């Protein structure tokens, strides 16, 4: 059984992964409506992956005999001040999520919950990749500038390994 503290941390993470999914969905819709089909496709895919992260937490809480809370998600912003600023938000958000995963891990360690300590390692590794892919795109956007955005938008999906 999960302790109450670890269960609460997992439920908090369910909310955060679900919000991440909606945030990237909103960003995807904005990018699509702004003529950036490639960046939109990248963000739609990212949104799907965040939903899978949420499902992983839901499955894990149930597997450990805990109780899952699916929350109401707050509404993400509809408009973004350009693609560069949007990807700065993506990176900042992923850094926040990394901190949040680390808190789940720290909570599990404090409760002597070795199963969760072990299980969450997948997310520790995933967050390394998430931060580095957001940083990669941000670097490329900065290099590309407005003139290069057309080409980056065309090629962005190739950056997904
Ligand atoms: Fe995630
Ligand atoms: Fe993420």
Structure in words:
The protein is mostly helical and 161 residues long. The chain contains 5 helices and no strands. The chain has helices at 4-33, 37-63, 83-110, 114-119, 121-155. Helix 1 (4-33) runs antiparallel to helix 2, helix 1 (4-33) runs antiparallel to helix 3 and helix 3 runs antiparallel to helix 5. It is elongated. The termini are far apart.
Number of strands: 0
- Each distinct ligand: fe (ii) ion
User: Hey, roughly how much beta strand do the residues contain?
Assistant: under 5%
Number of helices: 5
Q: What is the element layout, followed by pairings?
A:
Elements: H1 4-33, H2 37-63, H3 83-110, H4 114-119, H5 121-155
This protein binds fe (ii) ion (FE2) (2 copies).
Features:
161 residues; mainly alpha; 5 helices; elongated; binds fe (ii) ion
Short description:
By secondary structure, the chain is mostly helical. It has helices spanning 4-33, 37-63, 83-110, 114-119, 121-155.
